[in-house]
Amino acid sequence: RLALDAGIDLGPADRERIQTAFFTATFSIMGQVAKADGRVSEDEIAAARAVMDHMDLSAEHRRAAINLFNEGKRPDFPLEDVLTQFARECRGRRSLLRMFMEIQLGAAYADGVVHERERQLLLHICERLGISRFEFAQLEALVRGQFRGAGAGAGAGPRGAPAADTLRGAYALL
Fold first, then answer.
1. What distance in Å separates the CA atoms of residue 39 and residue 16, rounded to the nearest whole number?
2. What's CA 10's distance to the chain center, in Å?
3. How far is the CA of 136 from the CAs of 35, 40, 140, 145, in angstroms?
4. Nearest Cα residue to 18 out of 34, 30, 1
5. The pTM is what?
6. What is the pLDDT tens value at each position of the chain, 174 positions in all?
7. Main-chain phi, psi angles of 3, to 5 degrees
8. Euclidean distance between CA atoms 56 and 98, whole angstroms
9. What long-range pairs does 85-92 form, CB within 8 A, spacing at least 24?
10. Which of 57, 143, 146, 172 has the maximum number of C-beta atoms within 10 A of its C-beta?
11. 3-state helix, strand and coil shares in percent for the chain, rounded to the nearest 5
């Protein structure tokens, strides 16, 4: 059973709705973040694949994640709608929102540098989700530390994958 932040046990329908919102927002917004600097790099694609691997997605869910990532790259992607739905389903569950932002920051750092347009997008996402700039700075320092601590260059894992503990934590929570 899924218990989030406030110690509230959720039923199967609530869990599924939250998991779907998390999945949809994670991959589509990851595509938006990757595209924010104008070009999606191989490292950013590899980071998305690494998230899929760490989530141990079935072939069907992997295809859905790829489709969501590609939708997120489109110029007409409905970012505000996705953020509104995600925020509504999360209902302020801080740990879930933090894990979501850690994954997005991992995508932004995948190519070794967070471009100004990516940073502005991430700050906008935080604002919409009720995450303060101070909390964003903490999360960014955490992710940056994971990437630095993983060895040479920008990536936390092979080709810039986010840290496995973050992803395992997200799925354990879900």
1. 33
2. 22
3. 20, 23, 6, 14
4. 1
5. 0.80
6. 333 444 456 777 888 888 999 999 999 999 999 999 899 999 999 999 999 999 999 999 999 999 999 999 999 999 999 999 999 998 878 889 999 999 999 999 998 889 999 999 999 999 999 999 999 999 998 888 877 655 433 334 434 445 455 555 554 545
7. -125, 125
8. 21
9. 85/21, 85/24, 85/25, 86/21, 86/22, 86/24, 86/25, 86/129, 87/128, 87/129, 87/130, 88/21, 89/17, 89/18, 89/21, 89/22, 90/18, 90/21, 90/22, 90/129, 92/5, 92/130
10. 143
11. 70, 0, 25
Both tokens of 1, joined, read 């059973």
Q: Which residue has the tokens 């850690």?
A: 102
